[in-house]
Records
---
Amino acid sequence: MKVILLGEIKGKGGEGDVVDVAQGYAENYLFPKKLAIAATKGNLKQLDERRNNIAKREAVRLADANALKDAIDGKSVTVDAKVGDEGILFGSVTSTMVADAINAQLGVEIDRKRVELGKPIKVAGTHPVVVSLYREIRATVNVLVGVEAEAEVEQTEAAAEETVETEAAAE
């Protein structure tokens, strides 16, 4: 069954695309959620009239996605997690935790569904994570897991040593 998409659907296409989908998928999912309309002669004629507006919105979306990519690509975020012996985490780091860390530390709102983690992170260290922003536009963010806690301990120890040395020198 041919339908006209009213928004972006991952794996199918973007707004204004005419795609062929299963009839049950169209009638039970796309039509009730207002994600698509049937590709009738009248709807196709209206689509031709709206192509200019759709192209303008698409250009804005691409520009926004590229700006977002520039803002987060190559940046590092830290996710707090309890680390046990040998760098193994108690629990795991999920895509929701990564999205929340990006939001909190970089000030960029990312939907958890856009974070392509594959499987949860269960080992401390630095992990590159791909964030799908729009269609083929992707950014890579380095996620530091358990690294900050170790660095804070080292900084605290170093500060304590400096304080002791300073007090000894003052006496």
Note: The chain has two domains: 2-70, 73-170.
---
Amino acid sequence: MTGEPTRIALIGTRGFGAVHLRGLERLEAAGTARLVGVVDVAEPPAGLAEIHHRSLGDLLATVPAEDRPEIVVIATPIDTHVPLTAETLAAGLDVHLEKPPVPALTDHDALLEAARTAGRAVQVGFQARGGAGVDVLREEVAAGVFGEDVTVRAYGAWRRDRAYYRRSPWAGRRLLNGRRVADGVATNPLAHAVHAALVIAGIQEVSDVGAVTTELRRAHDIEADDTTFLRIDPAGEGPSVLCALTTTAPEQSSPWIEVTGSAGSHRLHYTDDVSVRTGPDGTTTELSHQRRDLMGNLIAHVRDREVELLTPLGSTGAFSAVLEAIQSAPDPTPITGDAVHWHGEGEAAHPVVEDIEQVLAAALERGRPFSELGVSWAHPEAVRTWTPTEA
């Protein structure tokens, strides 16, 4: 990429904003980007005081024309995404928006319209989409290489401690001060698996979604779900998506997405960018996949609008429909009693649901919610099916 570095501002310097700061340092070192300002209601990290502003409006009113940002990165609490993105678009700037992009399906349409009106782009930070393996599986599904009875499955067994769910006032919440934040396992920490699985299945827009079945559970002392089953059925032809996800595993393992059918399977470990393809005769082939940087992709798009975005806002409609289904379901049912074992002390303590990894695998293999597997802690009253007509 040639020319002057792209001018970038960051809203939110803590949490995942700190990850963006490190990424921007690498882009600055490569001569690709230049950080011209940060916005935060709190004091910024050391070294950023001279470019710190309390609001985007203050930044835009203060910086000279040569420092006016071209891209604004929004890495703030979920309930602030919509107003901050709308403000940024109205100022004529492109946006890199952290996931989940919106807390409600109606917000998705509103932001799409704001982007169209402004003639600007919104790239959503679903990091798994940067891995080329997602495109490989997506193209294989579209080409019909898996034969009949095709299903896309997403597995995520992560471990999170008390400190994780106390990292901010909105952590582990469904609502905060009456506003949605949707910080559940399927909509935040393992949202990448859900979104990538939908992309692979060819379910990207709201109109692609026929129905979403949910079963939400929690072992942590939180409001949102930490152990979740999802089934997303398409509106037309194509595979369904099954997701079994938790933050109550004994150890954190590499999450995966797998396509299965009568003609074989292909499992992608999207955080490692490796996959294993299994043929109908059982032979296996291991592949490695390149990774593209979402910010670098957005910069290239800003420089040349013919460059396609990896994860534009428009491609996240189906994910927002899944989020809507989760938020519309009853509050997650606690997993209590002998099924939960706590390990560690204080803020480092974390719950482990008995045999959770086997339960997740069984739910994916049978395509059934936890409550239909005979486990002691799951009951059918928590299962709910949502359709886009309810939105």
Note: The chain has two domains: 6-127, 132-292+312-390.
---
Amino acid sequence: MLKPYHHTPINEVGTDEAGRGCLAGPVTAAAVILPKSFNNAILNDSKLLSHNKRDLLKPIIESDCIAYAVSHVFQEEIDSINILNASILAMHQAIEQLKTPPKFIVVDGNRFKPFKDIPHECIIKGDGKYMNIAAASVLAKTYRDAYMNVLHEEFPMYNWKKNKGYPTKEHRAAIKKYGITKYHRKSFRLIPEE
């Protein structure tokens, strides 16, 4: 059972990202502040939820939370500053956009850079422990998936509607056949070396 918050029930923001391991498209982060009373039996780490459950949770999180924000950092920036820094930048940008300033930040994973003077804590597998991080993981994933569905219309041969830019066999075969697009991350190893 996920706990509603980690450290403090007053304006604690959970943040997480989606798309770190992808070959194409942005890395997307979300930041969510939930009310102390928030409870949802379905909510969990977005990777453990079906597409339908994530889509079901998205409007619930958005309507029931105190504040939320989502930010994309695109492939040019990822190539320029590396994926770890881009992931942290996306989280910072999402937190920056919150209408309610947080008092404490909980981050999924083990790497983060201080944001302003707000205390933070990194929590390994935090999206499976705390509702505010799980909620952020769901929003990051659903917003990124929606964005990749739009890119799919422009370049259907890579099947981003299905693989969302992750390095599937099909995606790598399409890169071999068609080359790369402006949405691919050029700093990543896009096809394995023979």
Note: The first strand starts at residue 12 and ends at 18.
---
Amino acid sequence: MLNFYNIEITVAGTDEAGRGCLAGPVTAAAVILPKDFKNEVLNDSKTLSLKNRRLLKSQIEANAIAYAVEHIFMEKIDEINILNASILAMHKALQSLKFEFDHIIVDGNRFKPFNNIPYECIVKGDGKFMSIAAASILAKTSRDEFMEKIHEEYPVYNWKKNKGYPTKEHRAAIEKHGITEYHRKSFKLLPDQLKIDF
């Protein structure tokens, strides 16, 4: 895991969580880490235990030069599609950083220019660069907290466990109970998409 080190520039890393979910927002974070930041545990959030994600979240928030997290909600996802919503979430997180930066590194292979700041897309960047990994941790933990909160409103979908992803249990609950205001209506909510009452 590398720190994107260049003495001349300040780098912001960004990543999103929840792109493949049937319910809930897509959430992005942006993080600027100190150039000497080191952490042996920090990695792509999907590879880490819940305990380590929570521990890293507090360490990142305590040590980052700046960080921000933003949600893009279901109505906007349905309006502009999930790819555009994911990029919008990353743009909003970058916009919310309270520190100037000269370069952006993005997890994945798709992005749109942001404020004329040079950027680089890095496939599997959350396993290669610490600022992207840190962003993945903050995005995932923040989104998970949101899904656990709305689970209390609609426990039949078990969002506390599946976080809105298309598990068999989640799809079965949609088939039995229909959908909620938290579901993404533009997504294929059931495998055959026969009938869902909106």
Note: The first strand starts at residue 11 and ends at 17.
